[in-house]
Design goal:
Length: 103
């Protein structure tokens, strides 16, 4: 079994005070979950804090996207929880699995 690291940023939105901002996202997925002929991973993290608020991301990655070297990544696209009168969209690809194990 395996998991993936990820790091990204949300899109920009205005908060309740009308301040334009975004948030950083970073973490590690849960273990692989069989899905059809592929697998997915669960993600459950909090964004960084901006002006005393943050957002939660609870999502499932897309299936594995295989690379020429036999390794793979996953696409993640969604929307954070609503906090301070707004939410944020995110769209990123996980980092490659087991990056220190060179085939």
């Amino acid at each position: 079994n395996h998991n993936h690291e990820f790091l990204s940023s949300t899109d920009f939105e205005r908060d309740g005070a009308r301040e334009f901002h975004n948030h950083r996202i970073a973490g590690v997925t849960g273990p692989a979950i069989v899905s059809g002929k592929s697998h997915v991973h669960k993600i459950d993290v909090l964004t960084d804090t901006f002006h005393n608020h943050f957002h939660r991301i609870c999502d499932t990655t897309g299936p594995a996207l295989y690379l020429p070297n036999g390794k793979h990544v996953h696409l993640v696209k969604g929307e954070t929880t609503n906090n301070d009168d707004h939410d944020h969209d995110y769209y990123f690809v996980t980092l490659i699995e087991d990056p220190t194990n060179i085939p």
